[in-house]
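Predict the 3D structure for this chain.
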Amino acid sequence: MSRQVFLYDPPERFVAGTVGLPGRRIFFLQATAAGRTTSVALEKAQVEALAERIDELLDEVVRRSGGNTSVPAVAPAELTDAGPLTTPVEEEFRVGTMALAWDSDTERMIVEAQALVELDADSEEEFAEAEERLLRDDENGPPMLRVRLSGTMARAFAKRALEVVNAGRPPCPLCSLPLDPEGHVCPRQNGYRRSRA
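Done. Predicted structure below.
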């Protein structure tokens, strides 16, 4: 069976979003174009890392070009997308590996999210070999979401993604662990329950 690649070049909309209440949210990347929508699930830390790396890569593009690029220094206000995910949200796969690239010829950011795959190996060497084969295998590899974005759209995606990540439970001012609505047992309070302020 050949690899399934969900290609959006370019998408009409590419966002990070969540389903569920803070503390129990499921994070998604969602691409939409020409009446089709693809949603892939991932971890909160993956969304945060992706947004930060996109901003870092775009900052480097601006720096190397000396400012002579179509990439904005900050996300334009007119591209702010605060809308919910397109429903129904149907998970195509759970993301394992992500990759970023910049195509300088077309001035496009390429975001790839590949499905999580369990590798069976007896040693670290076998695991490394199996992982390398999997990454090289274009024809029979796991499903992948590939999105090509303008620099402007990539900045807007990163801004929203960081806002989504930070919209969860507030941190405890003492230990920085997330506060549930009913509070939490704070290690800095020697195990006493700290209520949400």
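The beta strands are 5-8, 13-19, 26-33, 36-42, 91-103, 108-115, 144-150, 184-185, 193-194.
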